[in-house]
Amino acid sequence: MAVYAIGDVHGCLPQLLTLLEAVRFRPGRDRLLFVGDLISRGPDSLGTIRFVRDQGERAVALMGNHELRAINGLLGFPEKGFLKHLGFLTTCPERDDILDWMRQRPLVHHEPELNLRLVHAGFHSGWSLDQAMDYACRLGVILRDEATLRAFLARYPANLPEIESSDMDETARLHFAMAVMTRLRICQPDGRVVWSIPGASGGAAFKLEPDSPYRPWHALLDWPGSERIVYGHWAIAGLSRNGRFIGLDSGCVYGGKLTAMRVDHPDLPITQVSCPAYVKPE
Ligand SMILES: [Mn+2]
User: Fold this and answer.
1) The Calcineurin-like phosphoesterase domain covers which part of the protein (predicted)?
2) Which of 40, 53, 102, 214 is most deeply buried (CB count within 10 A of its CB)?
3) Domains of the chain with CATH codes
């Protein structure tokens, strides 16, 4: 059995199938770990969901910000871009099944035997590993109960806090944790999260030049141990390895590459396939 971690697919099903052919994926035997953002922007989000769902237990797909955006939109809290990229879900015959499936996406996935943990975006340096897992677990409980989830989303702040503060209530802490695990890229050196860069918009703004005043989230995380942490969400940074931190989003939907890594044999070469530029980076 082989275990592959795969970067952000964003509905690029043809490239996913090409990638699996390239690694000689064996359905029913090998396992697939997707870092989230299976959907949105690319040509076949629905087909991608169906393909991954059809792998059953042999595929794990994390919650990405685009899965969360789909859930938000379907529950009546549409964010910018929902109708353009995910509006098809509202009239899709499988709408309810897909919504249920997306609500069950884990925020964090742990593979103890592989010394490996996956998250879509990242973890906050103010948390211990136990705190992060506690947040992920409690958010999973909220996601699975539709009434609780609606109440949680209705209070989701338009402007996210830069950091947890002592006067935040539990819901505000969980909002912050949800945003960190699905959207984090960079921080101030003191740990305050930079959710957007003034004067710049979209993911392309998060290209960190060597003289940048900001730090990648993983540069601030000082958790003990040697566990590898695999993440996605940072297309402009591309495939990146920084010690135990491995970023797999290589900008597939923007004309970059889709990446697969053998996490059970990390010494084997990483496999990538090229993708057409379906959309321009926003
Ligand atoms: Mn993302």
Assistant:
1) 1-130
2) 40
3) 3-274 (3.60.21.10)
